[in-house]
Design brief:
Protein name: Transcriptional regulator, AbiEi antitoxin, Type IV TA system
Strand content: 15-25%
Helix content: 25-40%
Order of helices and strands: HEHHEEHEHEEEHEEHH
Number of helices: 8
Organism: Duganella phyllosphaerae
InterPro entries: AbiEi
Shape: elongated
Distance between the termini: 54 Å
Strand order of the largest sheet: 6-7-5-4-9-8
Length: about 180
């Protein structure tokens, strides 16, 4: 993998608003690259600043113009491919003003995938597993244009908070009545 080739391909992807790539995505861009050479190339491209390693097997184009305020959500979506994930719990309740605490550099995500806490350069992503059916998740979440992940409705976020046993004392009852 040559620098100039990577820069050109990253620019093409950026033009299509793609700036987070899995290792497999990079391998597809350079199918002729053997596995061992790919590992060395990725390390070299990270050390040269052409790629940023944001999690195990996940890279970001730091020069991307399409990168926006939803980087952590884009990373979260890429970390749970094939699973339904949505922003909920403290992150969503703070956005709705239901809790006064604002999660600083932490994104709380419900997912049909496995639970995990992932540290990234763009904040901590906390995945909490849900057994809810996909249809139920879709019904109780909202898609906002431009955001990579769906967000829970106010009521669904409160239900999620109670279901996973989080501290419900921080909920402002007055803010719940506004719905």
């Amino acid at each position: 993998m040559k620098q100039i080739e990577l820069i050109r391909k990253l620019a093409q992807l950026d033009h299509h608003d793609i700036y987070v790539l899995t290792r497999r995505d990079v391998e597809k861009l350079f199918p002729e690259e053997p596995d061992k050479a790919m590992e060395k190339s990725l390390q070299r491209m990270v050390s040269q600043g052409l790629l940023q390693r944001v999690a195990k097997g996940l890279y970001l184009n730091p020069a991307a113009r399409s990168k926006n305020r939803w980087v952590a959500e884009q990373i979260a979506q890429s970390l749970r491919p094939g699973h339904l994930s949505y922003v909920s719990l403290e992150s969503t309740l703070s956005e709705y003003g239901v809790i006064s605490q604002i999660p600083i550099s932490r994104l709380t995500v419900m997912t049909t995938g496995k639970s995990a806490i992932v540290e990234t350069p763009y904040g901590t992503i906390e995945f909490t597993h849900t057994k809810r059916r996909s249809a139920d998740i879709i019904k109780n979440t909202i898609h906002i244009k431009g955001r990579p992940l769906r967000i829970a409705t106010r009521q669904a976020a409160v239900r999620d908070l109670l279901r996973v046993g989080r501290n419900a004392n921080m909920i402002d009852p007055g803010a719940l009545e506004e719905t």
